[in-house]
Amino acid sequence: QMQLVESGGGLVQPGGSLRLSCAASGFTLDYYAIGWFRQAPGKEREGVSCISRSGNVTQYADSLKGRFTISRDNAKNSVSLQMNSLKPEDTAIYYCAAALNCDYPFHSWGQGTQVTVSS
User: Fold this and answer.
1) Is 35 left (phi over 0), alpha (psi -120 to 50) or beta?
2) Fewer CB within 10 Å of terminal CB in the chain, N or C?
3) Mean pLDDT over all residues of the chain?
């Protein structure tokens, strides 16, 4: 059974950084593009970033470019999301999911990890 597990969330002050990880269980991550999404209270889920199977192609939500960086380590079967200069509006549950490529429907959603940016 394909399963993704997110980790690395927590409470951080504005301007701080967090690094989220997405690990795979039951399948090999390098067969899939991996996307990060987030959902804030009372808001719809939105796409954050996506990385291709090879890692050569990355996509970001326009509002996040320059602050977030996605990367993957296929040898470790994991994908990371480095988040810098965090703002209170980044507070959300962050999810990762898999797809054949970044333009395809995503599946195998993880349970999410909470990120709270607050002083």
Assistant:
1) beta
2) N
3) 95
Cβ–Cβ < 8 Å for 46, 37: yes
Q: Answer yes or no: are the C-beta atoms of 26 and 110 closer than 8 Å.
A: no
**Spatial distance between the Cα atoms of 35 and 6, rounded to a whole number of angstroms:** 12
The answer to whether 80 and 22 have CB atoms below 8 angstroms apart is yes
Q: What is the pLDDT of residues 67-114, one digit of tens each?
A: 999 999 988 899 999 999 999 999 999 999 999 999 999 999 999 999
Phi, psi dihedral angles at 64 (to 5 degrees): -110, -10
Alpha carbons within 13 A on the beta-carbon side of 91: 12
